[in-house]
Amino acid sequence: MKNYLFILFILLYIPCLSQDKITLSHASQHEDFIEIGIEINKPTGKFDLIDLDTMIVTDDKKNMLKESKEYPLNYNYNNGTNKIKHFYVPDKKFKTIDITGILNYFTPSAANNSYFNLGPLKNIVRNTNLIDKKITEKNPLLYFSILDSTAINKTFPDFKYRLDDDKDYTKIDFESFDIMYAYRYNNKQKLVYFINDNMDPGYNTLTLRDKSTGIIYKLVKLKRDMSSSEKDQTNVELIIENEQSIRRIPFELKNIIVKVNKN
Length: 263
Description:
Radius of gyration: 22 Å
Largest sheet: 5 strands, mixed
Helix content: 10-25%
Strand content: 35-45%
C-alpha cells in the first residue's frame, strides 16, 4: 500500500514539475546588446500571467552582465510563455553564461481580489479612477480610468500631432478612436487590463504621457467601421497584482552559449 501511494505521489508530482519547467528560449548577441529569453510551459490565458521578478546573468569568469533598458520591452505581466531581457555586451570576451532568477506566475481571481470585470463600456463611469478604494488606500499611485475627450483636452490642452511627415500638425480627431483610457502602476504593484480579451488591442494607437503625474493615456482604434453599439459592448477587465495571487518560481540555466547575430 505504501509503495502504491508513493508511486501515485510521483505520478502527480511530475506533471506539476513539467508545468513549471523554465527553459531557455534564446540567447543572442546583437551589435550592442545581448538578448536573453526564457520560456515556461503554461496555458496562454488571462488567468495565467508571467513576469520576471529577477534575472541575473554571469559569464564563465563570474562577471555579472549589466541589464540594458535602452530598447523598449514590456516590463509588465503578459499571458504568453516567454519573457525577455537585454544586457550590455561586456568588454571582455566570454565562453558561456549562467542565468539565474525568479519568475512571477500570476493567477488572478475575483476571490483573492485581483480580478475585476468592469463590464461593457456603456456602463463604465468616465474620467474617474476605477480601482477599488481598498486597494488605492494602500497604494494611491495605482490608476485606471476610461476617458472621454474632455479629460484629454484638459490634460493636454495645446496638443497637436501629425500622422505623416508630409502632413500638417492637427488637433486630435476623437471620432477616429473607439476607446480612450489611462493607467499608472509602480514596482510595488502592477496592473494589467484586457479590452475585449486583448491585452494590446487595436491599431492606430495614440499614446500620451503626463509628465507631472506619470499617467499614460491611450487612444485606440479597435476595429474598422466599428458601430456605436459595438463600442458600447466593448468589455473591460482589470487585473491587479497582489501577494495572494503570485507564485514565485526560481530558475537556473547553466553553461549557455550565446549565439552571435551577424546581421
